[in-house]
Design goal:
By secondary structure, the protein is an alpha/beta fold. It has nine helices and five strands. The model has no long low-confidence stretch (mean pLDDT 96). Bound molecules: adenosine-5'-triphosphate, (3R,4S,5R)-3,4,5-trihydroxycyclohex-1-ENE-1-carboxylic acid and magnesium ion. The site of (3R,4S,5R)-3,4,5-trihydroxycyclohex-1-ENE-1-carboxylic acid has 9 residues, from loops.
């Protein structure tokens, strides 16, 4: 079946609930999230982008001037506000899973973990200067440590999409759409 047909069926079965993408920095939440939204006919939002807009500064500058704690507070506020909408694919920040209160919002939708090995994250983020937590002498070690701290939290997702080799964002979005029915309640069929 064509992905467009599958996407239409999945969209109907979702009944408007939001899709939340979680995972490490560089796992593709923003890139795949945008593709997922357009394929399934949802709107797209990115908590990091909304934070930068409301704060009027880059994430780097927020971390520098206010610190990580202030960023996390803003992040929870933005997540809470976005979760009031429906029919959205929402790319979150890599640390969204750290706060319990964030899960009260995430759990209202369907949570998708993009599980990408550190080697791929590193190759994607080599030379990146927009992620404050990676501006350290040993970004590989930093990613390993943070993944170890967060792994069990990411694992609370409804859906785990493991990326073992490079696939295009469109291929990953298609894989998400094809896998969503496995975690939804089966449709009611009165003839059975
Ligand atoms: N499937 C993919 N194949 C190749 N490159 C990708 C893929 N997904 C994302 N990328 C690239 O990896 C980089 C990071 O992707 P992206 O910004 O979507 O990650 P993220 O999970 O949103 O990260 P963050 O948590 O920091 O917001 C970007 O340069 C993007 O173009
Ligand atoms: O993994 C993280 O803690 C982060 C990921 C990014 O999305 C941004 O939210 C910020 O750089 C922090
Ligand atoms: Mg992102």
């Amino acid at each position: 079946m064509q992905i467009a047909d599958t996407a239409e069926r999945v969209r109907d079965r979702l009944k408007g609930i939001n899709l939340y993408l979680i995972g490490m920095m560089g796992s593709g939440k923003t890139t795949v999230g945008r593709e997922l939204a357009s394929t399934i006919g949802y709107g797209f939002c990115d908590t990091d982008a909304v934070i930068e807009k409301v704060a009027g500064q880059s994430i780097n500058d927020i971390f520098k001037s206010e610190g990580e704690q202030a960023f996390r507070e803003l992040e929870s506020k933005v997540l809470g506000e976005l979760s009031a909408y429906t029919r959205l694919a929402i790319a979150t920040g890599g640390g969204i899973v750290l706060r319990r209160e964030n899960w009260s919002y995430l759990q209202q939708g369907l949570v998708v973990w993009l599980d990408v090995p550190v080697e791929i994250l590193l190759s994607r983020l080599a030379g990146d200067i927009t992620r404050p937590l990676l501006q350290v002498p040993d970004p590989a070690g930093e990613l390993q440590t943070r993944l170890a701290q967060r792994q069990r939290l990411y694992a609370q997702a409804d859906l785990r999409i493991t990326v073992t080799h490079e696939e295009t964002p469109a291929q990953i979005a298609a894989r998400i759409i094809e896998t969503i029915p496995t975690v939804l309640k089966p449709p009611i069929n009165p003839e059975n």
